[in-house]
Design a protein that fits this description.
Layout lengths: L1 H6 L9 E3 L5 H4 L2 H8 L2 E5 L3 H4 L10 H14 L8 E3 L4 E2 L5 E5 L8 E5 L4 E5 L3 E3 L2 E3 L12 H10 L4 E4 L7 H10 L6
Parallel strand pairs: 1-2, 2-3, 7-10
Antiparallel strand pairs: 4-5, 5-6, 6-7, 8-9
Length: about 190
């Protein structure tokens, strides 16, 4: 996390809070340590509580992720944590320009995006990946309930955002990521 802050020239900015999108290890690995070092509060989706304790349960193809996480947690030094605030669908977080928690299940049970109504900007978390010109849904090995993802994509678009920022993406503008997200709902030729 510190490297990312330094890359953007934000290393001197205080970390006051941590907003979690979901419980996969690549998103929660250093949260306990960062909160301890900085005194930051943690807000996280309630439905992914088992992930924060290090006791996540995966089914079907996602058991591959569960296996990798069970190896990765001790190797990478994961420390369990309890959020200071549990988030549910529709909760409002009074940071930045205001963020509304939007439950977008499928990737994990509690997977959340965060919508800034004032700027019409959606932080879509891992709802999709946007690299180059080809948007993709996450592979089934990473999804707790892959059958729910198309409805989550539709729900995200119902917000009528002006732009989207996914977690794993290239540096395209939010408007470009929005166009890519819309293409995921278009029938393939």
């Amino acid at each position: 996390m510190r490297c990312a802050l330094k890359h953007h020239g934000w290393e001197e900015e205080p970390i006051r809070g941590i907003i979690v999108t979901h419980g996969h290890l690549d998103h929660i690995l250093n949260i306990a340590a960062t909160a301890r070092e900085t005194g930051a509060w943690i807000a996280a989706p309630r439905l992914d509580a088992d992930h924060y304790s290090g006791k996540s349960h995966y089914k079907r193809w996602a058991r591959v992720t569960g296996c990798l996480e069970s190896i990765g947690r001790p190797l990478l030094g994961f420390r369990p944590f309890t959020p200071d605030r549990w988030l549910d669908d529709g909760d409002f977080i009074d940071v930045w320009h205001g963020l509304r928690a939007i439950h977008l299940p499928g990737h994990t049970h509690g997977h959340m995006g965060y919508y800034c109504e004032r700027l019409k900007l959606l932080f879509s978390a891992d709802l999709f990946s946007s690299y180059g010109d080809v948007p993709r849904l996450p592979p089934d090995i990473f999804n707790s309930e892959p059958e729910r993802i198309p409805k989550s994509v539709a729900r995200a678009l119902e917000l009528e955002p002006a732009g989207v920022i996914p977690n794993h993406c290239d540096r395209a503008a939010p408007e470009v990521h929005l166009q890519r997200l819309r293409r995921l709902l278009q029938p393939s030729d």
